[in-house]
Write a structure and sequence with these properties.
The chain is of the alpha/beta class. The protein is built from 19 helices and 20 strands. The strands form 3 sheets. It has an 8-stranded mixed beta sheet. Strands 9-8-10-11-13-12-18 form a 7-stranded mixed beta sheet, with helices on both faces. A 5-stranded mixed beta sheet has the order 15-17-16-19-20, sandwiched between helices. InterPro entries: 2-oxoacid/accept_OxRdtase_asu, Pyruvate:ferred/Flavod_OxRd, Pyrv/ketoisovalerate_OxRed_cat, Pyrv_Fd/Flavodoxin_OxRdtase_N, Pyrv_flavodox_OxRed_cen, THDP-binding, Transketo_C/PFOR_II.
Length: 564
């Protein structure tokens, strides 16, 4: 078996995260590639949450629905995941769950709660379960012991020893079960994986921002964006940055503009509803030509919508937000590596072109995690700031549209940031010729931005019959289908920068059929392609139920369209 899908399911507060953390860290330490994603309800306790952990002999970058092993922590999980269960799915659960198991499925009774109580505390159940699952894939028991010891070392020697014992109990149970039921999940290990790091999307955005020179973070809590602020807050003292929770999103965005004005590099992290409140600030940044970086983690709307689910429905919001016309840059990372790299790039683009830069992620991306080899550290941050002379003109008319940007106290000159239309010095003006020239100057930046637009990722047959066009976090799943059906003439064109749009006309015009793949109800990026490149994409595969696009979903949709 190349890849094994384990799903943990239960109510919030049952300790799923503990099992998940122990298991995934130990699996990586044992030489397995891991990929994990989760779904959770919008409540502090109760409901049903699940985590899907893919274990593989090679890197995994896409979501597969099929469950190989289901571990329900509570009643209702089996029914909740019913559509993901197949004849060969194994269910490992307590005896009281028997009546919920559909006929034809194998339910292996595991009395984890009893074993935990025998060890002296029901809290040991999560560690026992980690050992059980770890043993099923024949992983290195020493790796599990190492992870457990590190996890519980702060609890004292006795508690650490008890948890190590609990993990070993689980491992022993796996050997008994595998022998009794005659099954085995042999997955090839790769020792080099042990040197990898495990990182999620939120951590990648946070670390990428630091790599780009971020030293000021402003936010108002809103899922799924808050974790980025939390990650940075945890590193604030060590990295010498300011992280501030403001009274609302308007204050947060204005504070970031102020940070950039003073010579800092600010990040705002928010979601759709919060970004809507920031539209006036975005327009202020456009007029004052202030750099600003906004991380917009998408979730289904309108309004509160599905606050803990995923979507790609805020493209138009980000593209058209703010009154008046002004240029902007919009990146949409496709994976953790790009979440890191494009977060770094966002700060340089904002500084260099003095425009708002919006980083579009989504719940699926910020919550997913897997093992990666390395993330390149940027040792030098280029700051595009000039020393002001006595005749300094903040908004000097230049052919490129990019005026020299100074900061208070650096040089003899005086700097004025103005939200009104202004002259070259920054003083308010209503003079016809000058107001026209200033608008033209700002929009000239768009041509410079187009010169640095990221080329989309093309993958598949050059002479493809079907070209799937995608953006953001859908890349891994779309690529998996191209790999599987390349002989059907399948290829993909994936955009990680959604504005300005790279002129990909050559790719688009060579395909017999183009299909847009998006997680919104209208096909917002397909419409943008039509507007910007004059290429109409009529065929669309759209998913908008708050769940990420899976390999099975995309395969069925392509089959229904006669592609497969």
């Amino acid at each position: 078996m190349a890849t094994l899908n384990i799903v943990l399911g239960g109510a919030a507060g049952q300790g799923i995260n503990t099992t998940e953390e122990l298991l995934t860290k130990a699996l990586k330490e044992s030489g397995f590639n891991i990929f994990a994603t989760k779904e959770y309800m919008s409540r502090v306790r109760g409901g049903i949450n699940t985590t899907t952990i893919s274990i593989s002999s090679s890197p995994v970058r896409s979501y597969r629905e099929k469950i190989d092993i289901l571990v329900p922590f509570a009643k209702g999980v089996v029914d909740w995941t019913n559509e993901r269960l197949f004849e060969d799915t194994l269910i490992l659960g307590e005896k009281y769950l028997e009546q919920e198991i559909p006929s034809g499925l194998t339910h292996i009774v595991v009395e984890i709660e009893k074993l935990a109580k025998d060890l002296g505390n029901k809290l040991f159940a999560n560690t026992i379960l980690s050992g059980l699952l770890f043993g099923i894939v024949k992983a290195d028991k020493k790796a599990l012991d190492k992870v457990v010891e590190k996890k519980f070392s702060s609890k004292g020697e006795e508690m650490t020893a008890k948890n190590v014992q609990a993990a070993e109990k689980g491992y022993e149970l796996s050997e008994t079960i595998c022998k009794e039921y005659d099954f085995s999940f042999e997955i090839e290990r790769d020792s080099s994986v042990c040197e990898d790091i495990v990182i999620n999307g939120s951590e990648a955005v946070a670390l990428g921002s630091l790599n780009g020179g971020c030293n000021f973070v402003s936010f108002y809590p809103m899922s799924p964006s808050t974790n980025v602020a939390v990650e940075l807050a945890n590193m604030a003292e060590e990295m010498g940055i300011i992280v501030e929770q403001f009274e609302d999103e308007i204050a947060a965005s204005n504070a970031s503009i102020g940070a950039w004005f003073g010579g800092g590099r600010g990040l705002v992290t928010t979601s759709g509803g919060g970004f809507s409140l920031m539209c006036e600030s975005l327009s202020l940044a456009g007029m004052s030509e202030s750099p600003v970086v906004i991380h917009l983690a998408q979730r289904p709307g309108p309004a509160t919508g599905l606050p803990t689910r995923t979507a790609q429905g805020d493209l138009n919001l980000a593209l058209y937000a703010g009154h008046g016309d002004f240029p902007r840059v919009m990146y949409a990372p496709s994976n953790i590596e790009e979440a890191y790299a494009l977060s770094t790039k966002a700060f340089d683009a904002a500084d260099k072109f003095q425009v708002p830069v919006i980083l579009l992620t989504d719940e699926y991306l910020v919550d997913m995690y897997y093992n990666v080899r390395t993330l390149e550290v940027n040792n030098t941050v280029d700051k595009h700031i000039v020393e002001m002379n006595s005749d300094y003109k903040r908004y000097k008319l230049k052919e490129s549209g990019i005026s020299p940007r100074g900061v208070p106290g650096y040089g003899e000159g005086i700097i004025i940031a103005n939200g009104n239309e202004h002259d070259e010095y920054g003083d308010t003006t209503e003079e016809i010729g000058l107001t026209t020239a200033m608008q033209q100057k700002r929009m000239k930046k768009l041509e410079c931005l187009k010169d640095e637009t990221l080329e989309p990722f093309f993958y598949g047959n050059d002479n493809c019959s079907v070209l799937m066009v995608s953006w953001g976090s859908t890349r891994g799943t779309v690529k998996s289908l191209v790999d599987k059906y390349r002989d059907k003439g399948l290829a993909m064109l994936h955009f990680s920068q959604v504005y300005p749009v790279y002129d990909a006309s050559d790719y688009l015009e060579n395909a017999d059929k183009i299909i847009a793949v998006e997680q919104n109800i209208t096909g917002q990026f397909a419409d943008l392609i039509h507007r910007e490149l004059d290429v109409k994409i009529s065929e669309r595969i759209l998913k908008y139920d708050g769940r990420q696009i899976s390999e099975e979903f995309l395969e069925k949709e392509l089959s229904d369209k006669g592609v497969l």
